[in-house]
Amino acid sequence: SMSRYQAALLCLGLFILLLYVGRPGPLEQTSWLWGGPNVTVLAGLTQGNAPIFYREVPPLHRGVEVVLLHGKAFNSHTWVQLGTLQLLSQRGYRAVALDLPGSPEHFLAPLGLHLFPGFGNSAPSKETSTAAGRAELLERVLQDLEVQKAVLVSPSLSGRYALPFLMRAHHQLRGFVPIAPTSTQDYTPEQFWTVKTPTLILYGELDHTLAQESLRQLRHLPNHSVVKLPNAGHACYLHKPQDFHLALLAFLDHLP
Ligand SMILES: *[C@@H]1O[C@H](CO)[C@@H](O)[C@H](O)[C@H]1NC(C)=O
Ligand SMILES: *[C@@H]1O[C@H](CO)[C@@H](O)[C@H](O)[C@H]1NC(C)=O
After folding, report:
1. What is the pTM of this model?
2. Of ligand 1's atoms, which has the minimum distance to the CA of residue 37?
3. Fewest beta carbons less than 10 Å away: which of 37, 79, 191, 234?
4. Could you report the per-residue pLDDT of 167-197, keeping only the tens digit for each?
5. Which stretch is the leader sequence (predicted)?
6. Residue 256, ligand 1, Cβ within 6 A
7. Arithmetic mean of pLDDT, 30-58
8. Ligand 1, atom 7, residue with closest C-alpha
9. What's the pLDDT tens digit per position in 190-218?
């Protein structure tokens, strides 16, 4: 029969197993990394003197087009890792993820002085120093990619591009999906009111700063809906990819 010693060991083993299985953390995230049928992700550079790196999935020239930007700690590959590009492709959407311009390696950079602040992997561009320049850059990239009526997905710091673009070129957008973006404070409620673009405001329940700040401004967009992802922080698409994908697809599937 089992000695006390063996029984104690068994209990300890079970306890450790429970600890491990019950642990929250990256489990859910990894289970949503792409494991479905193969989708080819193409990568390329746009033309011109400030080329932008992008990843794209088929259908390449048909249907509703979705353009995904990224926040400061992320890049276009984030949307491949999460399976967002593959999922959109499977649902018949053309999806393009961009890498925004980065900061130049400049002698002032070590001092924390960035003349052309950038946060992406594409080549630095002087245009990024003004809101008008960033909107123009995005407009040119969409032209280069022959994207006509896109749904623009903009998390966090990519609001520096998406908000000026929205204000000046919203007639070029079929939909807008802000995810706690920056730069909403640069515009008045009246300016938001003139933008009729169907908008899905997405944010994580645990994001108490940027999400709330941007929501106060974005709710002046006349045709918006709001989805709050429970138990998710600022990068809510990373914390709750499944909920994020369901909300995004529901919005896309119901666009006129
Ligand atoms: C995807 O493609 C790779 C390489 O072509 C192959 O090894 C793998 O089995 C494929 N996976 C599926 C799910 O089709
Ligand atoms: C508002 O947006 C929805 C899609 O989210 C769309 O179906 C509807 O037609 C839009 N309404 C107006 C008045 O534009």
Report:
1. 0.81
2. 13
3. 37
4. 999 999 999 999 999 999 999 999 999 999 9
5. 1-24
6. no
7. 75
8. 38
9. 999 999 999 999 999 999 999 999 999 99
- Answer yes or no: is the C-beta of 40 below 6 A from any ligand 1 atom: no
pLDDT value, residue 31? 31
Catalytic residue, chosen from 154, 158, 207, 239, is 207
DSSP string covering 100-127: PB-----TTGGGT--SS---SSBPP-GG
Ligand nearest to the CA of 255: 2
Residue with tokens 């499977």: 90
The alpha carbon of 245 and the centre of ligand 2 are apart by a number of angstroms equal to 20
**Closest atom of ligand 2 to CA, residue 196:** 14
At residue 29, the pLDDT reads 32
Q: What pLDDT does 30 receive? A: 32
Q: Quote the mean pLDDT of the chain.
A: 85
Does the Cβ of 198 fall within 6 Å of ligand 2? yes
Ligand 1 atom closest to Cα of 35? 13
Q: CA-to-CA distance for 82 and 131, rounded, in angstroms?
A: 29
Q: Which two tokens stand for residue 14?
A: 């079970």
Share of the chain above pLDDT 90, in %: 64
DSSP state of 66: E
**Which residues are within 8 A (CB) of 126 and not within 5 positions of it... i.e. 6 or more apart?**
116, 133
* Residue type at position 113: L
Task: For the domain covering 36-253, report its CATH number.
Answer: 3.40.50.1820
Question: Whole-angstrom Cα distance, residue 160 to residue 131?
Answer: 7
Is residue 253 annotated as part of the catalytic site, yes or no?
no
Residue 207 falls in the annotated catalytic set: yes
- Residue from 149, 138, 145, 135 nearest 252 by CA: 149
List the residue whose alpha carbon is closest to atom 6 of ligand 1. 38
